[in-house]
Amino acid sequence: xxxxxxxxxxxxxxxxxxxxxxxxxxxxxxxxxxxxxxxxxxxxxxxxxxxxxxxxxxxxxxxxxxxx
Length: 68
Known about the structure:
Oligomer: single chain
Protein name: DUF8149 domain-containing protein
Organism: Halorubrum saccharovorum
Pfam families: DUF8149
Number of helices: 2
Domain DUF8149: 2-67
InterPro entries: DUF8149
Number of domains: 1
C-alpha cells in the first residue's frame, strides 16, 4: 500500500462504529463487515457526508449546477 493513498471513513450506525480504511480496501472492508455482522445487508457504508461531497463535486464537474 502506498503511503500516499487516501483513507476513506466508513461508518456503521447499527454497530455504532467508525473507521478509516485505504481507498483500495473500501469495497472489501464493507463487504466483509456487512456479510459478517449484518447477513449481507448493506448497513455499513462510506461516510454519508463524504458521499454527498463527492456527488456535489461530480455534479459540478459535469455542469449539472449550471443554469440553463
